[in-house]
Amino acid sequence: MSAPTPLSAIPFVGFLAIPGSQANLQLALQFQLGQSQWLPPADLDALQSAQLERVVRHAFETVPYYAERFAAAGIRLPAKIDHAFLRTLPISTRDELQLAGDRLTSTRPPKEHGPVQFATTSGSTGKPLRFARTAVTHLNWLVFALRDHLWHRRDFRGRHCAIRFALPGIAEAPHGEIGPNWGEVVAPIYASGPAARLNSAASPAEQLDWLRRQAPDYLLSAPSNLLALAAHAANTGETLPKILELRTVGEKLTPADRRRLREAWQAEVVDIYTCEEAGYLALECPSHEGYHVQSENVWLEVVDDEGNPCAQGRPGRVLLTSLNNFATPLIRYEIGDHAEFGPPCPCGRGLPVLSWIHGRTRNRVTLPDGSTRFPRIGEGEIFASAPELKVRQYVCVQHAVDDIELLVAADGRPTPEQERSIAAALQKNLGHPFPIRFSFMDKIPRNPNGKLEIFISHVHA
To answer: 389: which of 242, 374, 410, 450 fits an S-S bond (Cβ 3.0–4.6 Å)?
Structure first.
């Protein structure tokens, strides 16, 4: 597809278009991204260092958590902050940030950044994190989402569909939700075709029926869900709908899974590496294998168990420092993923390259009839009958089709009646009256990739 023409906000003027204020803002940032991506790594690092200095000084002066953390470590900010100094700052884990509570929020977020709004992560690692963000952080999310579209030259005139996790009652089968355009990422700037979404709690049969009716050009979903749809079609002799491109998000995408998806769907596969706390982390190169770190949005490190930088090709822990969130700065935040850096990309972009992302894989629950579906756990729902438990972590493990264990780290223990209520709520969310057994512990161990999966299945290990 050739470069799309922006929408004009001025009547009778279409070429050259004169976009509206929001579109002009996004296009101005896209122009900057178009320049920065081609900078030599040294020049990109210099620009990033200058922004990191602003973030770190602001955090030290206005965020109680960081002020206390730096003081306890005997750290004083030097006259000039660079990457070398930043690597001496303490690493913060999700547990530590969650315990920090309101002390993680700036006492003086810049008023020019817009109103502060609070959000929480989905808790897919077993431990939700509450954080604040501003209009500036949201604008950056929009800009990098649009960069992904433009990099991969998607035709906005096509139909875009998504099958993703949603709360009960939202975008449920059989109809889902249908919108007139591609949403706030695209609609203020370019004309686009319709979009639709479906709750991933729908069964594979319901999802395929919905896809046939929607006939999308682009489909966004988790890799495990797209593989399950392919398996369902193969087992039932059905034909998968024809799609131009599969967009995968939210899970580890292995090379083997990528090949399986390409073969089954006969479509291109483009992965996205994001997190709710910091937005877009890495995008696939549009010309070559590998992911380009979005260095204008985050400083991403890969370190070993001692916190030392990993060499190219050596996997390590992913640390994030956000560049644009001055409401809840994230400084050397250990997200829980593992990844490894690769060599510079032949495309010529100066953005660092991740050659492999060892993220988590969200498992699917297996029903007695052999079908699988996306598990809906719902912490707020299943523990509603025992609010005094103060649940810190929880993990649901399917050891066999008829054996599900709920691991719980909490400050108390439920009564037998509460256990029955929790089990009933979990059975309802999983869509089957599975036998549920409980195991209580002080802390639930993470898997080898550093993640605490909210649902683990050993049925199809």
So the answer is: 410
Is the pLDDT at 452 greater than 90? The verdict is no
Count the residues in the chain: 461
pLDDT for 394: 86
**Do β-strands 316-322 and 333-341 pair in parallel, antiparallel, or remain unpaired?**
antiparallel
The residue with greater pLDDT, 325 or 125, is 325
Domains of the chain: 21-155+217-362 (3.40.50.12780), 365-457 (3.30.300)
Residue pair 96/140 in contact by the 8 Å Cβ criterion: no
Q: How confident is the model at residue 47 (pLDDT cuts 50, 70, 90)?
A: very high
- pLDDT on residue 448: 54
Ramachandran quadrant class, 405 (left: phi over 0; alpha: psi -120 to 50; beta: rest): beta
Going by DSSP bridges, is the β-strand pair 365-366/130-133 parallel, antiparallel, or unpaired? unpaired
Q: Distance between CA atoms of 56 and 86, rounded to whole angstroms? A: 9
Q: Which two tokens stand for residue 83?
A: 């990457």
**92 phi, psi to nearest 5 deg:** -110, 130
**Cα angle: 98, vertex 100, 102; to 5 degrees:** 105
Burial of residue 188, with CB atoms counted within 10 A of its CB: 0-12 exposed, 13-18 middle, 19 or more buried: buried
pLDDT at 453: 74
Q: What percent of the chain has pLDDT over 70?
A: 95
**pLDDT tier at 378 (50, 70, 90 boundaries)?**
low
Strands 436-440 and 372-373 turn out to be unpaired
pLDDT, tens digit (0-9, with 9 covering 90-100), for 62-79 = 999 999 999 999 999 999
